[in-house]
Amino acid sequence: MEISTRRLKLLAILGYFLTGITGGVIIYGSEKMIVATKTPILIFMVWSGLVLVIVSLIGIYGVIKINFGYTVLSSFALVVVSITLINHLMYAIIKDRSEVESDRKVLKLWNRHMLMGRAMHKIQDRLDCCGIYGFQDYILNDKQVPVSCVSEELVSYIYKQLGCKEASLREYLFSRNFIIFSEFTSLLLNMITAVAGFKLCSRIDRGI
Predict the structure, then answer these.
(1) In angstroms, how far is CA 55 from the centroid of its own chain?
(2) Is pTM beyond 0.70 here?
(3) Which of 11, 41, 77, 208 has its CA 20 to 30 A from that of 96?
(4) CA 68 to CA 56: how far, in whole Å?
(5) Which residue positions in the chain have pLDDT lower than 50?
(6) Whole-number Å distance between alpha carbons of 7 and 174
(7) Is residue 166 packed enough to be buried (19+ CB in 10 Å), middle (13-18) or exposed (0-12)?
(8) What is the pLDDT, as a whole number, of residue 96?
(9) Domain 99-167: which topology?
């Protein structure tokens, strides 16, 4: 049974709306993670989320105004974004380098810290960790354990026990899983919305 034009419009509007919401969630989540794990993947996700928000606004406008050009443009843009997301998903799943990337980041910050003194404070505050393997790293390098390593919890330990290498890996894995889930959700919404948009364009073109 063929869907009526009115229901098709409502489905397209709902699809674009949910796509925009998904884009906003992707931007919010990615920006929060960038504070601790600034990687090309997360930067890509921020831009992807921004594109989804813009495309959804164009799509909603096109459907409400029965504008063929805007509706085609937004539907085609969703297909392009979906293809990009598929490629990115395959890369994220097949070529996962979580441990390598997190180790590289922490070691780079630690080496800078040994030279300049304050490079790791931000990540130690953000990830609630200390040193590479623990606060003992400072003692072994004849350095004073910084304030950012002091535990704020009411426990028997004075300093944070978790090393930033392990904390960074946890954060990186969480980021990766968030990205995969977000991209799968966005991909599904994009395909449904694009199909509804193209069907609506066909009816607009025929004057139905």
Answers:
(1) 18
(2) no
(3) 77
(4) 15
(5) 1, 115
(6) 38
(7) middle
(8) 54
(9) Cd81 Antigen, Extracellular Domain; Chain: A (1.10.1450)
